[in-house]
Amino acid sequence: MSDSKTKLSGVSVALHWIVGLTMIVLVTVGVYMTDYKVYALYPIHKSFGMLIFIVVLMRVIWRLKQGWPEAASEYKTWEQSLSRVVHWVLIIATVVMPISGMLMSGLGGYGLHIFGLELLAATPNPDEAGKMIPINGPLAGTSHEVHEIAGKVMFAAFLLHLAGALKHHFIDKDGTLKRMLGKDIS
Ligand code: HEM
Ligand code: HEM
């Protein structure tokens, strides 16, 4: 069940790809729907964002219990430190994104719904169609900014992460990427 130098557990591999790929899709959809004002995508973005939060929490608990996997190959100390920092940024961002999204929507008066299942009712303004009465406007605004900035930070960290994974695979030609694809590299 636990990770080793030559093989990662199925749980680590599954959690990495479920969370990682969902984050990539949610960042892309988030930027697209915001920039082009595609309001039909908002409830889908929010529903998947809240559902993945459950898997994110499972992943964090798993990592806290297991610790980080040992490096698959010997490489320079500064590279190891950089990859550790990037892993921390990525895993923290996966927690900050859903929480800030929920606070922004919930406190903004838009309510919280997972594919129609109401967790928190919206508080529409009876005097202004389409506008909401915020539960806490300033905190909703701050959460909005956190959501936007953390999204950018996560994306930047992801680009470094992807560059590292590709360098390991194509330049160092070691088993780092293969191990994350579930292979035994012994
Ligand atoms: C195409 C996309 C991705 C590829 C090819 C990829 C590849 C990898 C590889 C090869 C490792 C193992 C590194 C090692 O052994 O030191 C790893 C670990 C990790 N990746 Fe990714 N990754 C991707 C996307 C993401 C995304 C989007 C996130 C988070 C938002 C993420 C978060 C992490 C974390 C936190 C680790 C540390 C080990 C763990 O917790 O499982 N990855 N990734
Ligand atoms: C779980 C991972 C999530 C990721 C990676 C993510 C990512 C993003 C990104 C990158 C944006 C574009 C920000 C901008 O450029 O202004 C965005 C917008 C948005 N997200 Fe998320 N999001 C997530 C979860 C959530 C959740 C759980 C909610 C609410 C329940 C939510 C609600 C929103 C809303 C309402 C916007 C549009 C903001 C606007 O109109 O300015 N997100 N998201």
Task: Provide tags for this entry.
Fumarate Reductase Cytochrome B subunit; 186 residues; mainly alpha; two-stranded antiparallel sheet
The count of helical stretches stands at 5
Distance between the first and last residues' Cα? 17 Å
- Quote the average pLDDT: 96
Ligands in the model, by name, code or SMILES, are: protoporphyrin IX containing FE
Strands, total number: 2
Domain module count: 1
Rg value: 19 Å
Q: Outline, from the CA principal axes?
A: elongated
Could you please describe the fold and organization of this structure?
The structure is a single chain. The chain has about 190 residues and is mostly helical. The chain has a two-stranded antiparallel sheet with strand order 1-2. Helices cover about 65% and strands about 5% of the residues. The chain has one domain: Up-down Bundle (Fumarate Reductase Cytochrome B subunit), CATH 1.20.950. The structure holds protoporphyrin IX containing FE (2 copies). The site of one protoporphyrin IX containing FE has 22 residues, from helix 1, helix 2, helix 3 and helix 4. One protoporphyrin IX containing FE binds next to helix 1, helix 2, helix 3 and helix 4.
